[in-house]
Amino acid sequence: MKVSVLTRIAGGLGLAAVMASAGSASADGPIVDLMVNGVSSSLLGDATAATNVYNYSGSLTDTSWQLGYDFNASNQADMQTSFISGNFLVVNTSASAQDFEIVLTLPVLVTGSKMTVYGGSVAGSIVGDSDGGTFSTIGSFPVWAAASNGVAIADLLTAPISVSTNPFQTALIGSAAFGEPIPSAPGPNLSENLSITLRFNLGAGDSAAFTSILVAQVPAPGACALLGVAGLVARRRRR
Question: Which among 147, 121, 126 has a CA at the least distance from the CA of 136?
């Protein structure tokens, strides 16, 4: 039996779960939009043992790349917590280095725009092919960016980053976090959706693996008032 490049690399990185059967037919949970270099797919999740938490696992293949994904998500935003948490594995199957833009968008159940605190993290690594591996940021773009309804929340693994590795060896891209303890960083009022964007350049035949978390929480009314006071004090100090 011929084993795909994506399956071999997923096993080598300890991410075999990424290669679960693509796209369950279940209609549970919110429909998550996953876009890779302009190619968009609607993902359906499976209910987990946790209330209002759904799992999305499978793979996507195009003429020049393969993507494996395995993440959990919840979109219960009103006085609760929305999050995206899981693993993503990208393989450049083309004969040359390639830019990637991967956008994951989760619709959230929120009544109007509400004050929100956020937190998140990302860690990444690459595996080279027979001639080694290369990974770099694209211009001034960060590797990882989070947004709420298109309004920026945070950037992690900011440019410039350049990583290389020997043939069939692994190299760390790096790790970073914000809003620790997660979630605690005030940000834009949550409205409509949460999104994570990964942007990077990956060498021919190489793979990149990411573990990513983004959490948004609408605090209780009393906590919202405290956050408002804290924000006002911070603004006065900056002045």
Answer: 126
pLDDT of the residue at 112:
84
CB 204 within 8 A of CB 69: no
Alpha carbons 40 and 107: distance in angstroms, whole number:
15
Determine the average pLDDT of the residues in 38-59: 95
Residue spans of alpha helices (H) in 64-201:
none
DSSP 8-state code for residue 145: E
Q: In b/e form, how buried is each residue of 71-101, taking b as 16+ CB within 10 angstroms?
A: bbbbbbbeebbbbbbbbbbbbbbeeeebebe
The total of other beta-carbon atoms located within 10 Å of residue 163's CB is 18
Give yes or no for residue 18 having a pLDDT over 70. no
Mean per-residue pLDDT of the chain: 85
- Residue 31 burial (CB count, 10 A): 13
Range 158-185 average pLDDT? 98
Name the token pair of 180: 């620790």
CB atoms within 10 A of CB 51: 9
Q: Are 44 and 23 in contact (CB under 8 A)?
A: yes
In the chain the first and final C-alpha atoms are separated, in Å, by: 67
Say which residues have a Cβ less than 8 Å from residue 53's Cβ, sequence separation at least 6.
47, 72, 73, 74
pLDDT band at 221 (very low <50, low <70, confident <90, very high): low
